[in-house]
Amino acid sequence: MTRPVVLFSAGLDSAVLLVQTAQRYGRAQPVYVRSGLAWEIDEQAYAQRFLAALPPASGVGDLVVLNVDMRDVYPASHWAIRGEAPAFDTHDEDVYLEGRNLVLLSKTAVFAARTGSDRIVIGPLAGNPFPDARPEFFETMARALSLGLDAALEIEAPFLALHKADVIRLGTELGVRFELTLSCMQPAGDPARHCGRCSKCRERRDAFRAARISDPASSAPR
Fold it and tell me: Quick count: other Cβ atoms within 10 Å of Cβ 18?
């Protein structure tokens, strides 16, 4: 059996996705894609810590890091490059990164095809407002990548019907260590922790409250 490739950012959604995929298929290959965004160093550190804490029999492979530098596309003044995270109450629609999933999937698909994997697993949720997070996008993208790479590739997005609180409940059932995940666009402190001020931190807080589960991750002092 080939190892499914899972797009893994160390956020809580992708952490649950990785563990679920490994349990479903018996194995999973985590891939982190660097694009030159401000929070990636901290995300990658969290990703390594999360993977190191998994049991040896988890079926999860070592982290593969791919590079697709977007700093020649997004201007230097862009908030994701400068590290100026959107404010706590910013709506999701206002934190759009053009072509984000398009870029992630394109590079990852080449890796998957070269390593003999037949599927990429990605974790967008219900209510995601962006055009590259819709079922029709993933279906069309899978066809285009399969044609372009002359390889049968599937894109799985198993959380499209779930909200973040649902994912937290699922992760709790799976034993996911949420304290080793990072959902923040401006991590603070040493070691880095959730800033508690950006829209991602607000989204995480609200989801744990909706799930009626306490978030074990800590935030930097305000």
Answer: 29
**How do residues 131-169 score in pLDDT, each as one tens digit?**
999 999 999 999 999 999 999 999 999 999 999 999 999
Q: How many independent structural domains does the chain possess?
A: 1
Q: Is residue 216 part of a domain?
A: no
Q: Is residue 53 domain-resident? A: yes
Instruction: Classify residue 153: in a domain, yes or no.
Output: yes
Q: Is residue 140 included in any domain, yes or no?
A: yes
Q: Using 50 as the pLDDT threshold, list the residues of the chain that sit under it.
A: none
178 lies in which domain range? 5-211
Domain of 126, CATH number, reads 3.40.50.620
